[in-house]
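Field reference: sequence -> structure
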Amino acid sequence: MRPRLFTIAGGLAALALYAGILMAGAAAIRNRDSAETPEFVLETPEAAAAGEPASEEPPGDTDAAPPSPGPDAGSGKGSRVVVRPVGPGLFNQPEDGIAKPLERIAATPPLSRAPEKEKPASAVFPRPVALAAGLVRSGDTTLQLKDIEPEKPEKVCQAKGKSWPCGMVARTAFRNFLRGRALVCDGADGSTGTVNARCSVGGRDVAEWLVSNGWAKPLPGTALEAKAEAAKTSRLGFFGDDPRDLARTPLALDDPAASVIPEHAAPDL
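Structure field:
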């Protein structure tokens, strides 16, 4: 009986020794792993922004400008994100560096050109009849020439102590100038009644012809005033003598055929 007890006690002691050796080896392995691998601390942006200062400068230096985030800010491991203030007075203000002042740029040119102003249509008036120097009738239209004052046929001029019907002579000279030719007037297409227009005969401006020969007076401020001064200096038309006086030298006009008063025009005088 006694040898059997010794055998059982020896087996139990061997098992206890074996278990102690295993536990000592496990503790040694655990201590070695903890010494080789440091403890890893996970840092999140929220925790860094809320619990750590934005810079590691001394707290006493308050005048130094905060360092600007580098190009790798927010992308690397453990980086710190700059938090934008959200106070009531600052919430609606743009962040510095993002919003810029508005800049006015040139307008985009139109894709199509603006329509050009249409030139006034020209009208042809056949068989014009001179009512006065500067006043013409053709059909139902009465044309008053621009830039001049029409002279009444009743106008009387004085020359060498004598009076002569210069208004009738001017109308006769004007009728001879228009005879057998048509008037071409700008801006009088389809017009009826009295129309103030610029007209020409054979390419010659009618108002200019009247003023150059002294048979009309230009309106103030027009380009025909120089023509009137030249006619006055040359004593033409109203500024000269009676052209019906056969004793005087005939006047040298631009159009000799228009300046000669034929015998069949005597009824106008």
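Note: Residues 122-268 form a domain with the OB fold (Dihydrolipoamide Acetyltransferase, E2P) fold (CATH 2.40.50.90).
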